[in-house]
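To: structure subgroup
Subject: Chain for Friday's discussion

All,

I'm putting the inputs and outputs inline so they're searchable in the archive.
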Amino acid sequence: MIPLKTLCCYSFFDGLSPEQLQGIAAISDEITFEAGEMILREGELADTLYVVISGQVDIFIGVGPDGRRRIDIARIGEGDILGWSAVVTESRTASAQAVTPTRLVATDGMALKALFDLDRDLAFKITWRIADVLSDRLSLMTRLFTQSFETAR
């Protein structure tokens, strides 16, 4: 369980009731990664949603026949989320690696979905925030694709 005051520091949790925050705190822990350590890998089981407490994380995908060519999607930091697929789908859609020593709030995805079943308002608020992150990342991917296409011409 993570202290409630930790969650209150991040905009991802803004507007949640004390009861909703308590529910999330009860299914969350703080974890750490050293620089260079993989946090999650594309294709793995999506079981945890993360919020960055401190540090920087690169999010990337593998492309090519063997998936070894790396395309960076974003570098994220304090207050940003990763691992949203734990709420939306069954497997990771990208990989993430700590760039610097990194501390994260790690929330159990299955337990969070169980809270959603009990509290539709919580489900709406969290999924809406995840949709906002997805929109931002899709815009980044579109820009990257467009730049690559224009450079290739």
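Points worth raising on Friday:
The first strand starts at residue 28 and ends at 33.
The beta strands are 28-33, 38-40, 48-54, 57-63, 69-76, 81-82, 95-98, 102-108.

D.
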